[in-house]
Amino acid sequence: MKILHMLAAVAFAGVLAVPLHAQDTTAKKPGGVNKAARDVSATVKKAGRDTKAEVHRDASKAHAELTKAGNDTKTATANATGIHKVGGTVGQAAKAVSSTSKKTGRAVKSDVKKVSSSAHDSLTKAGKSAKAQTKTP
Predict the structure, then answer these.
(1) Does residue 101 have a pLDDT over 80?
(2) 27-58: buried (b, 16+ CB within 10 Å) or exposed (e) per residue?
(3) Rounded distance, CA 85 to CA 74, Å?
(4) Angle between helices 2-20 and 33-81 (to 10 degrees)
(5) What pLDDT is stored for residue 42 in this prediction?
(6) Which residues are within 8 A (CB) of 126 and not within 5 positions of it... i.e. 6 or more apart?
(7) On the chain, which terminus has fewer CB atoms closer than 10 Å, C or N?
(8) Residues 6+ apart with CB under 8 A from 67
């Protein structure tokens, strides 16, 4: 959801850049293009940081809940069966399930990082492009 807010801020910055292009680009003029660019940059950075923090909080909560659920399940099973160390085929099956869930988690995390990296790259390119256009004589 926050990514949509960040993309909306970028789109808004693009809309602002068109009328500001005709203004003077010197930093001495109050309210010029440079001030608007700084404001847009600050807004996008804040949105990105907020998004990252929220994703991190959600991931941490999910990890803690999953860890607790897994440990509670192991404890309940061990208490019910009286077997506290699992070995043989049952242990191998448990390892396979654990390994699969870890691989899935890593893949999801990798996908999230790729998307955020791609978004950062496109925002950087858009910002540099807008900056280059305002500096054109």
Answers:
(1) yes
(2) eeeeebbbebbeebeebbeebbeebeeeeeee
(3) 10
(4) 170
(5) 92
(6) 10, 14
(7) C
(8) none
